[in-house]
Please model this.
Amino acid sequence: MPDPPPRSRSSRSPPPNHGPQWAIQVIAPASVAAMELIQEIGVDNIATELLRKRAWLVPTLHSKGFTVLQANTKPETGSSIVSIFRAETDVAALHQKLLDAGIVTSLRADRTGQKYIRLSPHFYNTDAEFQRLIDLL
Model:
């Protein structure tokens, strides 16, 4: 029996026998840069921006006929993450439509089988991106 072809290595794979060292050289600088960005912007500023986005998103989704889970969450205990569904809407198809348009969401379901679209806004998402999402819904 012939030998199997050699495995190809992705550019992200560590060189053979260099796992931990490669991780330190490649991953650590990216992590440091991310932490520096967060420190530069400020955790409180990021939290405030995320809650501003949620405060706009929830009533806008309601106006489009969506049910928003935990819509009345208090700001001090809430996050920007929003899960939605709309009666008579194929949520899985809507999720795919958003993915096809380059908007990444998560398709979820509860124990009853009700499907939801989970939106996870980030502080770097722009208002224009949110409006594009709403337009596609």
Q: What stands out?
A: The longest strand covers residues 115-119. The two ends are 55 Å apart (CA to CA).
